[in-house]
Amino acid sequence: MNFTIYVSTYPTGKYNFEIDITENYEGDKWHVVTYEAESPLPHDHWETIGLDNEKEIFDYLRRLREEE
């Protein structure tokens, strides 16, 4: 399974992220690649992390939303 989520920082709107999440990829249960969606295509890479469960995914999305 894989999917893409878009998250913007709140309330500033300073960053807009495109997050690609893939299940069971490169040794990760959930392989998460984050791009800065405001940059021209191809978007600038923000970070890549491996997460173990859905709670960690939602915690990560909340952290991105609060990025300053």
Key attributes of the depicted protein:
18% helix, single chain, alpha+beta, 68 residues
State the gist of this model:
This protein is of the alpha+beta class.
Low-confidence stretches: none
Count of spatially separate domains: 1
Strand content: over 45%
| Relative helix content | 10-25%
Largest sheet: 4 strands, antiparallel
Helix run count: 1
Query: Span between N and C termini?
Result: 31 Å
Tell me, rounded to a whole number, the average pLDDT: 94
* Order of strands, widest sheet: 1-2-3-4
Count the beta strands: 4
Radius of gyration: 12 Å
What pattern of helices and strands is seen along the backbone? EEEEH
Gross morphology is globular
- SS class: alpha+beta
Could you please describe the fold and organization of this structure?
18% of the residues lie in helices and 50% in strands. Strand 2 and strand 3 (28-36) form a beta hairpin. The chain has one domain (2-65). It is an alpha+beta fold and 68 residues long. A 4-stranded antiparallel sheet has the order 1-2-3-4, covered by helices on one side. It is globular, with a radius of gyration of 12 Å.
